Amino acid sequence: MHLSAVNQSIVCQEYLCPGRSVSLSVYVVLYVATAAVSLLTVCGNLLVIISVSHFKQLHTPANILILSLAVSDLLTGVAVMPFQLILLIESCWTSGPVMCVVFNFVTFQATSVSVHTVALIAIDRFLALSSPFLYSQKISPTVICIVTLFNWLFSLIYNFTLMFVNGNFTNVMCPGKCVYVIDGVSSFIDLLIVFLMPCTLIIILYTHVFVIAKRHATAIRALQVHNSTGSSKNRVSDKSERKAAILLGILVIVFLLCLLPYYICSLVIPYSNADLFYVRNVAVIFFFLNSIINPIIYALFYPWFQKSLKLIFTFKVFNKDSSLMNVL
Questions:
Q1: What CATH architecture does domain 22-324 belong to?
Q2: Which among 6, 23, 58, 61 is least buried, having the fewest CB atoms inside 10 angstroms?
Q3: Model-level pTM?
Q4: Max alpha carbon distance in the chain (Å)?
């Protein structure tokens, strides 16, 4: 289930956009805040994209998935967040029917890719910890690139089909409104594919990941007691994998906390219930908050991102062979 879903046919009635009900100063502050939030989302995720794309040391399977998530968050910041926040401010769609269709489709795409990418991150960390030998032999950056491209292509075909089958490319939008029509069967399928299945997979895999990480930590401590000199390389490798799992676990937990309120509201609160519409609006804000938080998480917890930011802001990325610089 995506944003602004309506499980019924659209019946256009006479509708006029409500006038501004707040003072001019508050109105200006709201628009400045909208611009600031959108700009922060775009800039933060653009920095992540530049970092992972430019520095060859960062071309790892886990970072390629982070790159995919940053691209979907960038798409949200550019083409979804500004329109949604303006819609919340105005209580009216002012961008016309064509942009409404584009807005809904891009929202579908960014949401699907984000959820499935986080599921892929959970799978990646589970394989890295549970089968490290198999992971190092079989899971290469090329393999992850192919999986990531398939994820985007699948989401593109799936969302186009979902909108086309429900007539959202041909329906005439009511003036001042931007909704899409989805029947009960499509809504149930969408709920399974975009929410229940990937989120269940994420929770199950990360539960196993933390159990495995704890088991590894106990085993390593025992090994260090009996053999303080041997297998140092393996200990460092295991520690690195566990640290990556914990950091990406923070990313996943924040993602679920931002995602769940909207989907809970979608299931519990009928779209026609105007009295609780403000609750849905708050849930939508939490939904978009994740696209802003992700780059902040990288900046706080990932040393490679901190180093790459320093190189970007000092313009050293324009130096010859800067892609080979050490950022780890």
A1: Up-down Bundle (1.20)
A2: 23
A3: 0.85
A4: 80
